[in-house]
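Contributing new complexes? Match this layout with magnesium ion.
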Amino acid sequence: MEACKLMTTAVVAIGGNAILRKGQLPTMENQMENLRNTCRHIALMVHEGYGVTLSHGNGPQVGDILLQNEAAKDEIPPMPLDVCVAESQGLVGYLFQQSMTEELEARGLERTVPCMLTRAIVDESDAAFSAPSKPIGPYYTAVEARTLERTKGWAMREDRARGGWRRVVPSPRPIGIVEAGPISRLVGGGSDLVIAAGGGGIPVVRRGGRLVGVEAVVDKDLASACLAKGIQADELIMLTDVDGAYLDHGTPRERPLREITTDEAERHLREGHFPPGSMGPKVEAAIDFVRSGGRRALITRPELLHTALSSKAGTQIQDR
Ligand code: ADP
Ligand code: MG
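Output block (do not edit by hand):
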């Protein structure tokens, strides 16, 4: 029988900017300093009795792991992308463990913060596999790009603005989180903060009864919604570097969205207000989660988390 659920549970997805800002050197010190600011607000949430599963992006970190692989390839065989995502979960997960423990202790909460290596199941027949779209890793010359296409079968795309070629990989939709069961038992069983599904999860497909890692990346917002559904969380909170979702963002006519239904969100999405690489997946994740029975989804910045939880800031997507 399932344990009686007393606390409100939430999946809190944290954007890459909270870990490393554009242009910052990716030192451990810089990343820890950025994390401290975000973790302070999440510790407050735990202090107020929320059960939190924290998920996070991994863009800059997995990019650097790929660069390290490339630089050392003559001495150490490069690892496939699923392994690199797993490495980044360990790297970022550990930084969050350290930072969250400190911020919880500062509020008199003695907690062990577990971090779960998490696999996201994707469908091998997902259309994304025949249309790789997500650029990752180092820049190459046109000659190198052609060699990589031939020898490794990579899809390469030119980035004219940066004057180089990059590998593009599929970004299929997550359809399940392998570790949802254990994560949910941790959150319900006394760990009121668990780190999971970093970088969108390690992408795996089901093949003949086995789970096989694949060369792809999963969007962290969509994976967080999948996780939130899988552990039956009450809320999905996406923390990023804007107050919330806007209509006509970046134009003189921009206006914030405060409380919207999933139908309204879907209409704005269709009208093109939320681009695919940034706000789009957050709004899609929110719609998916709320329509699957989630109480509400929230989009805001870490500094506004507390105010947003009492519905006074951010964008709230809910249907009641
Ligand atoms: P994260 O790393 O948190 O996922 P993203 O860069 O993917 O961050 O998404 C957040 C960005 O989305 C913001 O910095 C903002 O510039 C951009 N954005 C695009 N469209 C919108 C919109 N309609 N409303 C708000 N922000 C938007
Ligand atoms: Mg993003």
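Reviewers usually confirm one structural detail per submission. For this one: The longest strand covers residues 134-140.
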